[in-house]
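S., here's the first fold you wanted:
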Amino acid sequence: MSLLRKTSAIALAVAMGAAAAHASAAPAKDIVIVHGALVDAGGWRAVHDILVKDGFHVTMVQEPNTGLAEDVEATRRAIDGQSGPVVLVGHSYAGSVITEAGADPKVKSLVYVAALQPEVGEASGQLLQKFPAPSNAMMAASNRGTQDHFLFMTPANFRKNYAQDVPASEARFLADSQQQLAEKALGAPVSVAAWHTKPSYAILTTQDHLVTPELQRWMYKRSGAKVTEVAASHAVFVSQPAAVARVIEAAAK
């Protein structure tokens, strides 16, 4: 190869590298939010409205909660529909979903909202047992299961364990509109952990009775996530939507 060709090739590589770096540093305008177990995307309306008002395009994933693989596929379909870099947000069990789906090249950063953050080979239920809640809310105190092995909570337990800082009428509606979770979803390990290669942000809920603050702190320290502590229940997206939106917007920058 001639000196001229070598010089041109080097210049092209440098230019392409600079372009790629610029693209990865560009702010994200597309936000994809994945709801957690036992609720659906409707509870995220207040967070959605704040983000839209601030100029973001928001997509809410209504994953089926029938199994980790199915929930990851639903999330991937939502990511595929975005036009630019994506901030991928997951709450509770959906932390496992975004940990796997977040490997998509479109995903710029990950936001864990009182969420599980597994390592490769770890399952949601396995993590919940590491620092179990006093009520063991997702497992034992979910306290009801269907014949086909889906979990849900009674309204009284829902308010006590999930949404103790949410007005009673709103907590009752969340309880009455639960999206049941397949037990098998808790036993499925993730095959990739996107937080190893993508920046991760975490909202640590200090009054959480479901994913305990101790477990959250341990996971987020392990991953090196940028942590924001909020004095809230597991339903922080309902009780403190502005705090949740601020972290998502920081992850988009």
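And the second, which I think is the more interesting of the pair:
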Amino acid sequence: MLSSLRFTPADVPDQAGRTAIVTGASSGLGELLAEHLAAAGALVIMAVRSPEKGERVRDEILLRNPGAQLEVAELDVADFDSIRRFVAALGERRVDLLANNAGIGNIERRLTAQGHETQVATNHLGPALLALSLVPNLALGRDPRIVTTGSNIYTRLPVRFDLTDLDSERRYSPSAVYARTKTMHMTWAVEHQRRLAAAGSMVSSFVAHPGMVTTPMNTGLAKRRDRILAAGLGKVWGARDPEQGVRPLLYAATSPDASPDVFYGPDGPKGDALVESAAFRSPVKDLSIAARIWNATGEIIGEPATL
């Protein structure tokens, strides 16, 4: 069952006193999410691969929002060592929101510092390690939430998992790996919510998606035929301005009425301000697949002793 509601950045509740971490905050949806949270009063930690770029973006946000509280911290979510340094630097600092937003797509196959395929590391393994590592910090927060930037591509295309080949050594397709890794992490995030709830944790794991938006990731595809495909799909699906795409993420991150048990996304034509909630579909809702992904992920990232 679907339901829709009107929600814009003006509807974001007062975020004063809250600390939010936004990954990928130096461009696209991450930049907008960081700006809107800061404008509502949150202290936002902009977790970015390039601190220099992050500083430039922070200064631009401050020009538009004098008095906003923004910190820049180095974090490459594809690099496990970078994640561990970031978490160690936070120490026991309280965190109210982790926006696991950073992601990449449609790139040629390459490996990370730990030898993992870059899309699976950036879109799934790294965000999983970060979320698990920050549960103790989030447990100190007020209405603590993890919000995953997902994709509804799995509702339109068949997605299959081969957990024996997470690094795509046997076969690699940029677009197929993007769909698989995004769906994999959404399935993991929904399973994380089940486990958090079963343990009685105050931390919640949400998933929201922006729809097809005109962000740098969608304009930097690896092959000409992928660019043509993306342009065509954008026309068919109604590519949105990022300002429309960020609204479901903001709703999941801030609304007291948001639920971790549904999938939030944009509704209506391009430019509409409605946020739609929908039930998760298979494979994201499949308990058996979720358990396998959870276990396989834990074996790779050295699962921290937290939920």
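Why I say that: The longest helix spans residues 174-198. The radius of gyration is 18 Å.

Talk tomorrow,
H.
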